[in-house]
Amino acid sequence: MATAVHAAQPQPWLDTSASFETRAAALVSQMTLEEKAAQMQNAAPPIERLGVPAYDWWNEGLHGVARAGQATVFPQAIGLAATFDVPLMQQVATTISDEARAKHHQFIRENQHGRYQGLTFWSPNINIFRDPRWGRGQETYGEDPYLTARMGVAFVHGLQGDDPVYRKLDATAKHFAVHSGPEADRHHFDARPSKRDLYDTYFPAFEALIKEGDVDAVMGAYNRVYGESASASQFLLRDVLRRDWGFKGYVVSDCWAIVDIWKNHKIEPSREAAAALAVKNGTELECGQEYTTLPAAVRQGLISEAEIDDAVTRLFVARMRLGMFDPPERVRWARIPPSVNQAPAHDALALKAAQESLVLLKNDGVLPLAPTVKRIAVVGPTADDTMALLGNYFGTPAAPVTILQGIRDAAKGVEVRYARGVDLVEGRDDPSATPLIEAAYLRPSADSPERGLRGEYFRTADLSGTPSLVRTDAQIGFRWDRGSPTDNLMARGEAGPGQGVPNDHFSIRWSGQLLPPVSGRYRLEAAADDGFRLYVDGKQVLDHWTPSDRMRGDGVELELQAGRAYELRLEYFDAERDAGVRLGWRMPGAKQPFEEALDAARSSDVVVFVGGLTGDVEGEEMKVNYPGFAGGDRTDLRLPATQRTLLEALQSTGKPVVMVLTGGSALAVEPAKLSAILMSWYPGQRGGTAVGQALFGEVNPGGRLPVTFYTADQKMPAFDDYTMEGRTYRYFRGTPLYPFGHGLSYTRFGYDKLRLEVPRISADGRLKVEVDVTNAGKQAGDEVVQLYVRRQQAAPGDAQQNLRGFQRVHLAPGEKRTVAFDLDAQQALRQYDEAGGRYTVPSGSYEVRVGSSSADARVQARFEVEAARD
User: Domain named PA14: which ranges (predicted)?
Assistant: First the structure.
């Protein structure tokens, strides 16, 4: 904030009676060319002589404030889409923006202006999830343009707020516009969809967020589109975004996308030329450092200073609209207190979102689990893994509930036996496979009454200096988002101001005594992202004191004697980005995990297999590959081989097997031998609670698939082909495993009396549609009423049908409700005419289909469309 400057120097840019545009222009006019260029990069430095504080534009809020320490973690975006609940989406986004505002003002009070501490958020991701192999599809709202638009607009409204003067946050629609893998090719790939696919599939959500959501920012993509860099495209940014859609905000490049223009795409010969091209074509803000060359570009005649002035002014209008240059008492959002962060109401909303996101794919009657079930075996690699809750781009939840814990909490009077069984994927050093050493077997010193290890937290990466904090940690099992344990400690009351460790480049030493309960051969295992060293009785037994781009583990086998205390020391350092560390063991006589899982299954009444994926194997441009995965994308739609092997063995026991899937994309499972399948996505901090409640019938699942699930033997189009034919429910001609919009319930819903207001409308008219929906079962539940439209005489290139309305309604047993839809023909029926270069509404016969999924139309009706009246 610049309140001190406001009081001391009444400069024209601090005049609150003037417009933001006038104030921004006045401020920019006082800057040197070098200062202007520096303000066009995400890590903008301060200009002290003008009272401009440092500001980093980079913040993430995909499903909760990310990478800024403690924050409420909601289901991953794909899970939020599965709720098909627009009002809930806006509630979630409003909660995220409350926490973001509170965090920002706390950072400002502490004079912190770094990355992940600002008000400009690079969310939502509204790319179309066209192919289930894409690792970042989890960040999207699925495969359908209409669903994506409705969820995206609600999310933007929740982030940006409703104040007529000041934005609450800036939302960013990303990545404009044709961007959905492969991850390995994104820095040099040229996407060339047909104009029909571009306008009918890839554009609509972006157009909606600009025209209806008034989104303040748009992020370009890495790849080229029709030969132009998406972050420097005259067609995308000048012609479509600004000219056709009237976008008034600012454009930010994806991080280091401007480098790609000259280095990988080779569109321009130099850094200066690449930077100039990006600015001239409409990218005002760069995430990266190429814009440092803009002064040289001006001197070389590649761009004018007036063009740079226009770009910088847009950026300062945005900052001023966020209230950054005004007294806090004028800004409504500045009054949000720090206490809102991780508030109980936010946790309750995270639980509600998780409950609504669950999709029941199959149920032969085993769910909800009957009172006769007395023993449950919970088996699988994601049952007790916090990462299975989080996906990617996440904050640090205060008390995450794993699926195992959620089942235990819900299983009142039922014995729950857990066995991990197998690693998540083949060939991965899976640090979460080994149980943590429990506090009962650790003590800080021989004379300490506490249990656990003494932790010394350093603000340096080499354990040097005086510890910022010393405390006792009961277990060593931590996973921090982007290396940020500071808020974790402070939120628990264990660190005061100035005591927390930095986001990156910190270290921790744990020391104390290990007390083996029995004599025999133990295996001690440590794992970390980044470096770790383990000592027993002063002897180093593990040494991996080097940076790593992932969690990696190692172990050592030792003969230990009961009744003896062993001196134990674990040292750890974090380099940058994600951080985590674990210390576990396997005790003498412990069975191998696979056999342990089968033993648990044989002694159970029901097996709950919890498996699938985590953000450790699917995500953004990963450097580590495993069988079935490449760079964060997937090369195999099936469960990883390790899990398939375990699942077959569990099924051979003859016990009913309920599958709970975690993941951010469609999985080609084999349902024939499964009694039930529940898709939980990455369900957020209370995901385990929601799953447990659903399995035992406390919650009736009502989520729907925002993506098509394909069979394992389905041949998919080439991943790098952006043609829509053969993809998604709109253009896939085969039989899916589970269709878009699918989801079962513990009750039944009936549809009746579909009514059209008129049988005929003009191409610029509207059509009101009503249908009666009844809960015909014995349990309350949610039904997602879905309306699809299709053209009767489809032309080549037409979608088979298009979602054009949906409502999630809650009905008590026997309750009937009339659900109404209002179709605008100009939006609901438009198709892009490539020859004419515009949208048209073809005349002729259409069919309205209303039901429970894209493949389950319960009622239909036809109507006619006439050419628009002059």
Answer: 448-601
Handedness of CA 538, 544, 545, 550 (dihedral sign): negative
Both tokens of 526, joined, read: 């440590």
pLDDT of residue 10: 76
254 noted as active-site residue: yes
CA 747 vs. chain centroid, Å, equals 31
User: By C-alpha distance, which of 159, 154, 161 is closest to 171?
Assistant: 159
pLDDT, tens digit, 9 for 90 and up, residues 444-490:
999 999 999 999 999 999 999 999 989 999 999 887 765 444 444 43
Whole-angstrom Cα distance, residue 775 to residue 745? 11
Among 473, 618, 633, 783, the one annotated catalytic: 618
Per-residue pLDDT tens digits for 95-153: 999 999 999 999 999 999 999 999 999 999 999 999 999 999 999 999 999 999 999 99
What the chain holds in terms of domains, given with CATH numbers, is 3-340 (3.20.20.300), 351-425+592-719 (3.40.50.1700), 438-475+505-576 (2.60.120.380), 749-866 (2.60.40.10)
Nearest to 316 by CA among 36, 723, 707, 18: 36
Count Cβ atoms below 10 Å from residue 760 Cβ, excluding itself.
11
Residue 491 confidence (pLDDT) above 70: no
Evaluate whether 78 touches 139 at the Cβ level (below 8 Å).
Answer: yes
- pTM for this structure? 0.92
Do strands 766-775 and 816-824 pair parallel, antiparallel, or not at all (unpaired)? antiparallel
Query: What Å distances lie between residue 783 and 362, 462, 702, 806, CA to CA?
Result: 16, 56, 6, 10
CB contact at 8 A, 467 and 457: yes
β-pair partners for 784:
808
Separation CA 110–CA 376 (nearest Å): 50
Backbone angles phi, psi at 161, to 5 degrees: 80, 180
Cis upstream peptide for 46 (omega within 30°): no
Phi first, then psi: what are they for 470, rounded to 5°? -130, 130
Catalytic residue among 200, 207, 254, 633: 254
Longest dimension (CA), the chain: 94
**473: annotated active-site residue:** no
Residue 69 DSSP class: S
